[in-house]
Amino acid sequence: MNSDLNWLLFFQPIVEGETLVWWEMLFSGLLWTLATSAVAGVIAFTVGSLMGVLRTTSSKPLAFLGNTYVEIFRNIPLIVQFFLWYFVVPEFIPALKEWSIEQDPTFVQFLASVVCLGLFTASRVAEQVKSGILSLSRGQRAAGYALGLTEGQTYRFVLLPMAYRIIVPPMTSEAMNLIKNSSVALTIGLTELTFRTREMGEVTFAFFEAYIAATVLYVIVAMTVNRVMALVERRTAVPGYITGGK
Q: With 80 as the cut, is the pLDDT of residue 16 above it?
C-alpha cells in the first residue's frame, strides 16, 4: 500500500495556477489548532482554578456554585456545547448577534471555540485543583490561619502553591486532551487541522495521505506538550512529599 501513497501531493497547488500548496494549507490549520488550544488553555486554567478553590471553601453557597458549574459543563457533550455557544447563545443576546454578523466569520468561530473549549476544560481543571487542595494536610490550612492570614491569603500563599505542584501530572493529561478536543471546532466551521485534513481528502481523494499527515502532526504537538510538562513536573516536584496526610 505504501507504494500507492502520493506524498508529493503535499507540494502540489491547491488550485491550478495558484502558489498555495497542500502542506501550507495543513500548516495553517495546525496554527489555528495551536491558537485555539493556547487561548482556551488560559481560560480553562483561570476559571478552573477559581471553581476548584470555591469547591473547597468553608462557604456553602460558594461551594455549591463551584459544584454546579462542574456538573453542568462536565455532563453536557462537548459537541453540544459548541453548537450552543455558536448557534444558540447569540440568538438570546441581540447585541451579540449583531456584532457577530459584522465580524469576520473565522474570528467569530475562533472566539466561540476558545470560550466553549475553555469553559468545558475548566470543569476538568476544577476537579484537579480540588483534588490537589484536599490532598494537603489539614495542618497547612490551620498554619495559615494561625499566622493571621485570611482565607483568601491562605489559599494564595499556602495551599495553591503546593496544590499546583502536586497536580502537574494530571494537568499534563488535561493539556493533551485540550489539544485533541480542539478538533471538535470543525463542527462550527473553524478551519483548524482536522477541518483542513478533511478538506484535503475530499478535494484530492487522498484520504490516507491527509489523515496520516494530520496524525503525525497531532502526535508531535501532544508529545511536545508531554515533554514540556514532564520538565515542569521535575522542576516543581516537592521532595519527599506524600499526599493524603491529615
A: no
Q: Which residues, at least 6 apart from 48, have a Cβ–Cβ distance to it below 8 Å?
A: 121, 122, 123, 124, 125, 126, 128, 129
Question: Which positions ≥6 away from 155 have C-beta within 8 Å?
Answer: 53, 133
* Confidence band of 166 (pLDDT split at 50, 70, 90): very high
Give 65's Cβ-side CA count (13 Å radius): 12
Contacts 24+ apart (CB under 8 A), 152-160: 155/53, 159/133, 160/49, 160/53, 160/133
Residue 241's pLDDT band, with cuts at 50, 70 and 90, is: low
Q: For residues 207 and 201, is the Cβ–Cβ distance under 8 A? A: yes
Q: Which helix (H) or strand (E) holds 239?
A: none
The model's pTM? 0.91
Host H or E run for residue 207: helix 207-236
Say if CB 206 and CB 6 are below 8 A apart.
Answer: yes
Distance (Å, whole) CA 195 – CA 181: 13
Q: What DSSP character marks residue 6? A: -
pLDDT tens for 117-156 read: 999 999 999 999 999 999 998 899 999 999 999 989 999 9
Least Cα distance to 53 among 170, 118, 141 occurs for 141
What are the C-alpha distances in Å from 207 to residues 67, 78, 115, 149? 43, 26, 31, 60
Q: What is the mean pLDDT of the chain?
A: 92
Residue 132 · residue 236 · CB < 8 Å: no
